[in-house]
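Re: the 509-residue chain
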Amino acid sequence: MLTSAMWSAAIGLASVLATASHKVKSLPHYNDAKPINFDHSNPSTDPLVLWLNGGPGCSSLNGFFVELGPFVVQSDLSVKRNPYAWNRKANMVFLDSPAGVGFSQPLLNASEYTDDVTTARSYEFLEQFLELYPQYKNRDLYITGESYAGMYIPFLVHKLVTDPVENLHLTGFAIGNPSTDQKLDDGSYMDYYYSHGLVSIETYRAIQNNCQPSELWLCQDGHPGCSALCAATYAAAELSIDFDEMTPYYIYGDICLLQANQTKALQHQKNHMIRPLTHRGTIGPCTDTFTTLYLNQPQVLDAIHASGGNSWSVCNRNVSRRYTLSLSCLDKYPTILQAGLKGLIYSGDADAIVNFIGTQRWLTDDGLNLTVVEKWKAWFDPDNQLAGYTERYTNLTFKTVKGAGHMVPATRPLHALYLFECFVHGQVACDSFEYPKDPTEYLSGADLTAPTTSGQEDAAGVVVWWWLGIAAAVAVGMAVVVVVLKKTQKDKKLQYVQLNSGTAKPVYS
């Protein structure tokens, strides 16, 4: 029996399509000045980058439409280009994994929802991808993602290092706010909550008095071993934060007030890796809702050849509930770090869920005990603003992203794009690239008028979706080419799009 895993790719050359019928010739409600039919950068030489969203059970199509892909869905369900798309200097592949995520089907047995099985199927996908598209053989490959991809990626990279795929040139990996070790990640929650003003000093002292440090993660995740006193104290602390009215994934962001009952279901469940609604750029906090409505329209399903009959959701809770979470993947790192790959771990510092405190602990004394080769210092964006802090270890760099949430590209898109391109292409190269102006720059009086460059005028990417039958996965596909235009803005402040704007009002069930 064939299982299915939907995957999509943003690739910079239309000719990669093995079958013309798989190409998406237009996107319904596309609302931008130029047609989506332009090549971008140097697709014949640009590196290949695999992107994995986490969950487990969350679709990489959400990363595509909400974070770093070429398109963004507006409040009126029209589609515009994303000027911060990562595919402007890379061939991006967005993989929905495991089966049951996004448009993929069927839902698997619980025994198949493990990181070992997911790794085996992702490994097979890469083998089949290179066979179907041989022009990407021996191209530099980077594996990237966020959240529970902090498990997916080390498992997969370890497999590729110990059992290489022929003609696959694995070069590096980058993971944002990575779920890596439950004990260290989740044991840091209360430290983060208190240091960011989410709990009172009385509550924090009660946690210190009533809980042993070794049981904090047990109380957070509902594991046996959490004492009754600590459990009660912990529950009272979380109740005082009022998670129903804020998102711990981006503590400075607003929540979406549409579909209030539905959105609350995504807030701070025990399986806390489920992705939240987000706040991005000029769109507001309901982007996930708009994307879900857009992708489930019949004309959109027809356009992207998603004819499997199932609806799309940001995260499939049935997959999440069945998935056996790994407690840690730290044992994968020694082999990975000895392989000579480029490595990047980055943390949005406004994410409470997989926060930078826990991440620093597993990178250093409490986990991998890595040796610092370049001490902690600030790093800056092309807008000359402080973007965060960085520390470098042997074969691995850690960066914080100032003001970013769990989904860094969604909340600080310029920071994320610059961080990504400097990691892949090197600091010297990325310093020569032109970057779009951050919509929030006007707050500091920055000039939003950008110089005219052919690079930005021609910025584009091809989105390729196709069916690929393999033993563990059958893909649903489309292909689109997008031009990212530079917008010249003079004497005008950027503003958030009103949630009720547009001529067509979405219907919310």
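Residues 1-19, 260-283, 441-509 have pLDDT under 50 and may be disordered.
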